[in-house]
Amino acid sequence: MTISSCMKSMRLRTLPLSLAGVVMGIGMASRVGEVGWGTVLFLLLTTSFLQILSNLSNELGDVLHGTDTDERQGMRYSIQDGEMTIKEMRFLIRASVGGCCLSGLLMIWSSFGRFYGLAPILFILLGAAAIIAAMRYTLGPNPYGYRGWGDFFVFIFFGLVSTLGSMFICCHSFGSFLSLLPAVSVGLLSVGVLNVNNIRDMKTDARTRTTVALRLGDKRARRYQTSLIAVGLVLMLIFTSLTWTHWCEWLYVVTFPLFLLHLRGVWTRRDKALDPMLPLLVMSTFALCVIAGVTIGCC
């Protein structure tokens, strides 16, 4: 096991998607009240550990279930290339769980100054649920990612929990019910990343797992992708139209052409040619959330 093989399996290029909702939540919290930057630091660190844990667990789970083969359309990772053993991967997973627990507890202490009370206990339980969800996507005897539940859990954890949870941990408030709109938007765009990945891998996934894309079929899966992106962007527009106080809060619309470029690729590309559409959607979503979060918090 080398540093390069560890970095390959950690898939650090996926971090912007996991941080997108967090950045949005921090921006929304800044509008509601004062934000402690120590809490923000531990929040970003905890989110990164959770994403790395998910990536490592997914690689191990796919190997153990026979999904990662030479016919797979996506990137190859360390175990498949013989750069890391299963035992070494299990060690990295345990280390990531430890990182999640330590940074998560520091985040809760930084925010609330205690571990007792309703809110701290709920966040401890939420953190435990997030760790389990990160590992059970493909790991275990009956992983939910192999039964078509990936979209649901991505929506919950990358959208609602990421955005609203980050907002509450930073300012101890959810603001108004309108805060739900950006959270749902981020969730839908994040599901889009998973769905385009599943559209690319339909041929090989059909042998070992069930995904929403497989249930829908190729054409309807692409329509589903279009709906996820369109509804996600419309919800952001509705939120801004109801809450804006300065023109700069509309600046995130400059990212919309990137989403249109993504959808064009989804409808015109097949199999491995869809690969570039994943990072395009990840970075488009991250850019939207950064611009929206900064302008909501500062304008």
Fold topology:
Elements (H helix, E strand, L loop, with lengths): L2 H8 L4 H18 L4 H28 L21 H27 L5 H19 L13 H22 L8 H21 L1 H4 L6 H5 L1 H26 L12 H13 L8 H22 L1
Helix pairs in contact: 2-3, 2-6, 2-7, 2-12, 3-4, 3-5, 3-6, 4-5, 6-7, 7-10, 7-12, 10-11, 11-12
Classify the helix fraction into a percent range: over 70%
Q: Which regions are unreliable across 5 or more consecutive residues at pLDDT < 50? A: none
Instruction: Report the sheet-strand fraction.
Output: under 5%
Overall pLDDT metric: 91
Tell me the total number of β-strands. Answer: 0
Molecular shape: globular
Please give the alpha-carbon distance between the first and last residues: 47 Å
The class by helix and strand makeup works out as: mainly alpha
How many DSSP helices?
Answer: 12
Q: Name the quaternary structure.
A: single chain
Overall radius of gyration:
19 Å
The biggest beta sheet reads: none
Q: What is the succession of H and E elements?
A: HHHHHHHHHHHH
Kindly describe this structure.
The radius of gyration is 19 Å and the shape is globular. With 299 residues, it is mainly alpha-helical. It has helices at 3-10, 15-32, 37-64, 86-112, 118-136, 150-171, 180-200, 202-205, 212-216, 218-243, 256-268, 277-298. The model has no long low-confidence stretch (mean pLDDT 91).
